[in-house]
Structures are given as structure tokens and as C-alpha cells.
Amino acid sequence: MVTSPDAVDLAVIGAGTAGCALAASLRLGGWSGSLTLLEIGRGPGGRTATRRSRRDPGFALNHGAPLFNISGKPEPKLLTPLHKAGWISPFSGAICSLDGEGRLGGALSDPLSSGATWQGTPQMDHLCRGLLNLAQRNQPTPLRTNTLVRQLEPIGHGEGWILRGSDGQALLRCRWLVLSGTLLASPRCQSVFGWPEVPLQQAAARLGDPQLLQATATLGDITSTASSNLLLTLSEASAGAWRQQPWQLLQFSVAAQQRWGIRRVSQQAMASGRWGVVVESSPAFAAQHMQVFGSRSSAAQLLGAGPDPLAEAQVMQALDQAVQDALQINTAGAERQLMRWGAAFPQTPGLSTELSLCASSRIGFCGDAIAGLGFGRVEGALRSAEALADQIQELSPPSSH
Ligand SMILES: Cc1cc2nc3c(=O)[nH]c(=O)nc-3n(C[C@H](O)[C@H](O)[C@H](O)COP(=O)(O)OP(=O)(O)OC[C@H]3O[C@@H](n4cnc5c(N)ncnc54)[C@H](O)[C@@H]3O)c2cc1C
Q1: Topology annotation, domain 62-78+89-121+224-346
Q2: 143, 181, 284, 289: which could form a disulfide with 37 (CB 3.0–4.6 Å)?
Q3: 65 lines ligand 1 (CB under 6 A)
Q4: What is the pLDDT of residue 395?
């Protein structure tokens, strides 16, 4: 087993659901190698993160997924320990829908709400916090936050990896590597962030491993839809009309999405009576505003994609006006923030499970972009991580190091 602080048996890039679930699955399965997660964000969660504020401890708003659903059986193994320890609970809010005429109706059956619905408790980021907690049960599993992995450097031919940061400094050496997000494999790192190369493509070309080359090409071809989310924070006094709504999550029908450019709206209670409302744009709205980032997005800041305050204000104003028109509820007095998810939902077909572990190059992939049940959702992120953990257990028992 590798024990140096700068070298580990397994490095996992990304502490979203899949990265955290991989760590938890490995540890619960008895895998005792050294394992470090590296995450560009300020904390774990990825697209199930909760926005928090250092200056305002009571502020907590789920700015990505507001819930998750498990649509298939058997359910992911990690659900039971998470539920038992209180990190997740069945989604308790009412789900309603809005049609193109602005009429409220019952919940629509859509891929994000079929089956059993769950939420992180009390906030969505407790899903990943709980997974990380499970990952610490048998031995430490450190998470390095605010850490962008910018380059992937293979050691020899399948002997491991050196991970490098934004100025080329070595962050970590590892015997095995797992990518839980698609950024390092996707041409969007060139088009959006101006990187000259796609890091995984460069590494795969050096290694010449046909399986990795195929996986890299498939990952690079995966497209995603975006979501521009308007985050509204209301005081107790100004939240009255929102609180009276019969729904916690409101789905917009196709006609309503076309009319208002909104896909869903969720409501969340915060500490000291404050109230949070998250307006998720339609994919079409987000596509029209792809270059506009939220200025407080840590990923955007670390990746160097500068904010444009004027454009940001315009996008927020458009979504704010749309939600007022659609629901006939005033947003006066609300604090506004924008969160732009550039790759909110991957589009099929995704990466086949046969390519999710390239053993000769000692690299694996997990996340919601892996094909299979739950693709593009939290369920898929959990399932892909559990499946990859099983494969790693078989291939890399720590005792053989
Ligand atoms: C607005 C929105 C609403 C959603 N609603 C739902 C819903 O209702 N139900 C549902 O099931 N799903 C929903 N989803 C989808 C769900 O959030 C994702 O399927 C799931 O969170 C994916 O988890 P993941 O671990 O695969 O990826 P991610 O959560 O994206 O995790 C990848 C992590 O890797 C990090 N990372 C990437 N590259 C690097 C790097 N180079 N260096 C360091 N760190 C890196 C990222 O910061 C991120 O934290 C929603 C998503 C969005 C955006």
C-alpha cells in the first residue's frame, strides 16, 4: 500500500455524488488502500451541492438537484446506510405542475420524479457529506477542496499517474485514477475555458491503450444540456405568498417551458425564517445564455471564466420576470444570484460500462454519464460508482501492492 502523503493508491477527481459514492463503496467493501478525492469546488456535492456563505452561516440553498429519485430495483446499496444514519430521507414536499396557460395541476410523470424520491437531510449536500462520512468509517479518506486538476500525466505505460494543478505543479501521484466528472475529457474545456488541449485526450494519445482511446473518444462526444438557475432569497416578511403555494417543487409542462423558459421551480425553507426559491431555466433558455456565468460560482472562478455583471443581471432579470409572469407572485425584496450549470444533464448514449475501467492504463470512470439505469441523474451516479468499486476491488486488492 502507498503511504506517502503525496502518493496514493487511488486518486478520485471530483467529490460529487459519484466520486463520494465510489469512496464509500470501496471502504464499506473493505478496500484499505490509500485514497484521496480532489475537488475544484469549496466542498463536496458537485451538481447536488448546496450553496452556503462563510459570512452568513444560516444561508443554505440547494442550487443544483433539489431531490433525487431511484427508479429501478435493486436500489443502490448505499441508500440504506445513508438513510439509517439520517443523511438522506424520503422527499417530503408536494410536487405539482404548471401548464402553458398558467394552471396548476398534479405532478407530471417525468424521469426526474419517477419511483422513490429522496432528499439530502437537511440539505442536498448532505448526500455527499454522508457518503464521505461512510468513506471514513474504516480509515481516513481525505478530500482536497478548491483543487483543480488541470493535467493528467501518465507514469510509464500503465504504472500510474501524476496529477497537476493549474500552474503545472504536481498535486498527487497515484497508482490508480478515477475521473468522476467529464470536464477533463470534454472539448468544452477548450471552448468554454480556453484550454489549448483536452487533458484526457493528450494522456490517452501518450499511452496508446486502445480501450482508453475508445473511452476518451466516447466521453469527448457526450453533449449536455445546460441550466441557468436563478436563486432568490426572501425575508420571512416577503415570502408569504410563496409559502402559501401548495407545492415545494413545480414542474413546467413542455408548453409552459416554451412560454416562460423555465423547467422547474423549487422552494426551500432556510434558517431564521428566510425562504429560498430556485428557478431552473429550460435547456433552450440556458443555451441562449451559455457564456453568462454566476459571479460566485467557485468553479467559474477557479477555471478562470470571468463573470460579466451586466450580462448576469440581464439573465437574472429575464428569469425573475418569467417566474413572476408564470406564477403571478411578486419577487420584490428578494436577493438574487445566478448559478449557470454548463453541463447539467448529459445526453445519451453515454459511456458504456465495458469502457468504464481501462485496467491497462489504470484509469476508471464513474458518474451520471456512464450508460445504464439512472443515466443523467443521481441514481446513475450512485450505480456507476458502486459498479466501478466492485471492479476496482477485484483488480486492485491493496494487499498485493
Ligand atoms: C440544476 C440541476 C438539477 C438537477 N436535478 C436533478 C434531479 O431532480 N434529480 C436527479 O436525479 N438529478 C438531477 N440533476 C442531475 C444530478 O445532479 C447529477 O446527475 C449528479 O449530481 C451527477 O453526479 P456526478 O458525481 O456524476 O457528477 P458531478 O456532481 O458533476 O460531480 C463531478 C465533480 O467533479 C468535480 N470536477 C470536475 N472536474 C474536475 C477537475 N478537473 N478537478 C477537480 N474537480 C473536478 C466537479 O466540481 C464536481 O464536483 C440535476 C442537475 C442540475 C445541474
Answers
A1: Polyamine Oxidase; Chain A, domain 2 (3.90.660)
A2: 143
A3: yes
A4: 86
